[in-house]
Amino acid sequence: MTLIQTSDDSFAMRLLLIEDDRDAADYLRKAFREAGHVVDHAGDGEEGLALALDGHYDVLVVDRMLPRRDGLSVVSELRQRGEATPVLILSALGQVDDRVVGLRAGGDDYLPKPYAFTELLARVEALSRRGGVPASETVYRVGDLELDRLAHRVSRAGKDVPLQPREFRLLEYLMRHAGQVVTRTMLLENVWDYHFDPQTNVIDVHVSRLRSKIDKGFDVPMIHTVRGAGYMVREGLR
Q: I need a labelling partner for 101 at 20 to 30 A (CA). Which of 29, 78, 178, 207 fits?
């Protein structure tokens, strides 16, 4: 399989990947992110269900065979709760009957393994378009700070704020959790893909650079350090 770069930089999706195979998950997260998309990951069915219910995703990519709760059970539970986010099911079980069972459980598409990443990406993009995600769910606003993840644009008080890709991902994650403390571990796992603490000041450096771009020249800061806990995006916190 070959990593590709999407030709349309404005088409950025927010995806949830529910996959217990660590190597496969690492590969797919890297591939989707190199294609310009934002990816959260869950390693089992229970965690995946909780994230799917808590977050706003364009598409869910769900492996069928998962620990704690299998993929079809996750999809079925989501549908029973009224969650309509498009779901693509991945499975080594590729017979017609297997695909029918997956679709009847609530899946929108079913891709047998092995597969080419180019096909997986095309199917996920098609599901995202079919899902018709409202514009309000793709734009985060905190006070006069706005982040449009589809247009890959950040502005404050109506003025564009150019950000590097990593800075954009960092701000997107902070704004997605506006008003909540975001810990160092959360940032390492979801922005840097680290599942260990590299014992460096990489987060502090990037937050400092981001703060200089977002808050410089404004009386009301948006990015705050919560001592001993992490960081928070919130208007007017002192």
A: 29
Closest by alpha carbon to 11, among 167, 116, 125?
A: 125
Output the average pLDDT for the chain.
84
Residue-wise burial string across 194-218, b where 16 or more C-beta atoms lie within 10 A, e elsewhere: eeeeeeeeebeebbeebbebbbeee
Q: What is the C-alpha to C-alpha distance for residues 167 and 82, in angstroms, rounded to an integer? A: 34
Give 182-212 as a DSSP string: EEHHHHHHHTS--SS---SSHHHHHHHHHHH
pLDDT of 196 reads: 66
Total H helices, total E strands in the chain: 8, 12
State the DSSP code for 158.
T
CB 4 within 8 A of CB 118: yes
Domains and CATH numbers, the chain: 14-131 (3.40.50.2300), 138-233 (1.10.10.10)
Other C-beta atoms closer than 10 Å to the C-beta of 151 total: 14
Q: What is the pLDDT of residues 189-216, one digit of tens each?
A: 778 877 667 777 889 999 999 999 999 8
For residue 109, give the nearest of 88, 90, 130 by alpha carbon: 88
SS3 breakdown of the chain: % helix, strand, coil, rounded to 5? 40, 20, 40
What is the predicted pLDDT for the residue at 195?
65
**CA within 13 Å, CB half, 171:** 32
